[in-house]
């Protein structure tokens, strides 16, 4: 299947769940060591969460901790973030890489959204609390899952895997919709 | 499916998120040009191929991305322990006792 990446909108919709493509957004990957972490947090303007899967949001920047020294940042003001971090590069060496174009983001919501994810994700979705996120695997592709509510997820997929993942989600939506009439 | 405890995420997760990365605790000779051919061959190719508890490396590739070490029984496929990369080998007897 083909996805028009420039036109956000609904891709699949049934009574079970709705999958839609989100508008393009600015995404950054941040790698920074323990000693420089505090300086980076100050420059960005929010405390970097330390537990894998924990999230924080402040001043138009949303951050998810992916691992012990890795974070993904979503911002609505990319130049400000880039300049703030570049300004302290000498004092606090780090790596801030723009990865906006690497992934497409989808919104999955509906009464069976969590069940739809179990189609390709071997992990227990219920163990991811509301307001957390994880990097995990979905039918062989690495994805970043943001849980915004009990039945509301954001889902970042590498663009090369997106047609496959979306096709699977479409099938799943139809299948769960057929057995779910409420 | 195996369930593996990632020592960095502190979660027990399905095997599909992980990838195997060979035997653990194999130190590269500090000065390769001074190593004899036998030593270099041993470092590159010779592995224990253990039957029973085996120290091995795993990587949480679809997660935090970290390499860590695990002690797995190659007969029962049971993970006896996992620990962070760089940490010393756990004592086999106490790990076995704790797993029982």
TrEMBL record, chain A:
Gene3D superfamilies, A to Z: Heterotetrameric sarcosine oxidase, Probable tRNA modification gtpase trme, domain 1
Top-rank taxon, per record: Bacteria
Listed InterPro entries: TrmE/GcvT-like (IPR027266)
Protein known as: Sarcosine oxidase, gamma subunit
Species this protein is from: Chelativorans sp. (strain BNC1)
Organism placement in taxonomy: Bacteria, Pseudomonadati, Pseudomonadota, Alphaproteobacteria, Hyphomicrobiales
Automatic annotation (TrEMBL), chain B:
Coiled coil residues, start to end: none
Signal peptide: none
Pfam families, per database record: SoxD (PF04267)
Lineage: superkingdom: Bacteria
GO molecular function per UniProt: sarcosine oxidase activity
Entry's Gene Ontology BP terms: tetrahydrofolate metabolic process
Official protein name in the record: Sarcosine oxidase, delta subunit family
Organism per entry: Chelativorans sp. (strain BNC1)
Lineage per the UniProt record: Bacteria, Pseudomonadati, Pseudomonadota, Alphaproteobacteria, Hyphomicrobiales
């Amino acid at each position: 299947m083909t996805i028009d990446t420039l036109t956000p909108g609904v891709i699949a919709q049934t009574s079970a769940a709705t999958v839609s493509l989100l508008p393009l957004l600015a995404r950054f990957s941040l790698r920074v060591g323990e000693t420089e972490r505090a300086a980076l947090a100050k420059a960005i303007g929010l405390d970097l969460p330390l537990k894998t899967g924990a999230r924080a949001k402040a001043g138009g920047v949303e951050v998810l901790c992916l691992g012990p020294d890795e974070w993904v940042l979503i911002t609505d003001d990319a130049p400000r973030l880039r300049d703030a971090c570049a300004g302290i590069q000498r004092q606090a060496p780090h790596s801030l890489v723009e990865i906006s174009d690497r992934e497409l983001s989808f919104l999955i919501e509906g009464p069976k959204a969590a069940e739809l994810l179990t189609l390709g994700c071997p992990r227990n979705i219920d163990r991811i609390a509301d307001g957390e996120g994880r990097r995990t695997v979905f039918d062989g592709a690495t994805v970043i899952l943001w849980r915004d509510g009990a039945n509301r997820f954001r889902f970042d997929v590498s663009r090369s895997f997106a047609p496959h993942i979306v096709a699977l989600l479409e099938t799943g939506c139809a299948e769960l919709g057929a057995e779910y009439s409420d | 499916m195996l369930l593996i405890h990632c020592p960095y995420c502190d979660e027990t997760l399905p095997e599909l998120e992980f990838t195997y990365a060979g035997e653990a605790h194999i130190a590269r000779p500090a000065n390769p040009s001074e190593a004899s051919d036998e030593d270099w061959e041993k470092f590159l190719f010779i592995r224990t191929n253990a039957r029973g508890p085996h120290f091995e490396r795993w990587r949480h590739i679809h997660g935090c991305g970290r390499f860590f070490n695990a002690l797995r029984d190659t007969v029962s496929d049971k993970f006896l322990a996992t620990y962070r990369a760089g940490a010393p080998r756990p004592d086999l007897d106490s790990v076995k006792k704790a797993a029982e």
